[in-house]
Design brief:
Blueprint: H1 2-33, H2 47-65, E1 75-79, H3 87-93, E2 98-103, H4 106-115, E3 122-126, E4 139-142, H5 146-156, E5 165-169, E6 180-183, E7 190-195
Parallel strand pairs: 1-2, 1-4, 2-3, 4-5
Antiparallel strand pairs: 5-7, 6-7
The protein binds S-adenosylmethionine (SAM).
S-adenosylmethionine (SAM) binds near residues 39, 40, 102 and 169.
């Protein structure tokens, strides 16, 4: 009996060590690959933010489907898609719309590519978002560092239609008034939804 308990304890310890190693590798990769935070690091939208963000995005897409001035199918992009965490449930929910994830990091890109296998409406591209043409996208999803967020907005505002919707996790776009700001409940995490209407520009 004691031997069995010792065995279980050893297995638990082993699992803990593996978990610590995996988390450390994840943080080292994320920090080094982002050029020590010069570029937005690889962090996945998880937990409460994920649980709130997915239904909010679904509701907004459904609301826009009812608008007669927005042509369907919609083109929806995650700019820096990581491992396609946000795109997979959306692509599954809306098989009639087109989804694209652009990702610069080789490891998240490969994982996203594998996870997207079998989704006919989801394309994963290894691409720099600053060389991506945002003109055709109706919805732009972003979870990027504040400066990258702002640079991306400045880059794409010339090309996008005034009906474009931004879903932004955590860091806001300074030049735009959000149509909805959702507090995740920890006084730190927010989701912003922006309707890119000229009259809403600050
Ligand atoms: C904070 S993560 C967000 C991942 C995913 N959107 C999510 O919410 O789970 C930001 C991602 O953007 C990628 N990224 C950063 N700069 C990029 C760039 N210039 N072009 C493409 N991807 C970029 C990073 O590699 C990282 O995976």
């Amino acid at each position: 009996m004691i031997e069995f308990a010792e065995f279980c304890l050893l297995v638990l310890l082993g699992l803990l060590v593996v978990a610590v190693i995996l988390v450390s590798v994840f943080f080292i990769y994320s920090t080094v690959f982002s050029g020590f935070m010069k570029r937005s690091p690889f962090i996945i939208t998880t937990g409460a933010t994920y649980k709130v963000m997915i239904p909010e995005m679904i509701a907004k897409i459904e609301e826009c489907e009812k608008k007669s001035d927005m042509k369907t199918p919609f083109n929806i992009i995650d700019a820096g898609c990581g491992i396609a965490t946000l795109l997979l449930p959306l692509a599954k929910k809306f098989p009639q719309h087109n989804f694209v994830g652009v990702e610069i990091g080789i490891i998240p890109y490969l994982i996203a590519k594998i996870r997207a296998y079998g989704y006919k409406n989801l394309q994963i591209l290894r691409q720099d978002l600053f060389t991506t043409d945002f003109g055709k996208f109706n919805f732009i999803i972003c979870f990027l560092l504040p400066k990258t967020m702002q640079d991306l907005f400045n880059k794409c505002k010339k090309d996008i239609s005034d009906k474009t919707v931004f879903f932004v996790n955590r860091f806001k776009i300074n030049d735009l008034q959000p149509s909805k700001k959702i507090d995740i409940g920890d006084n730190f995490s927010y989701i912003y939804i922006y309707d890119y209407l000229p009259e809403k520009r600050k």
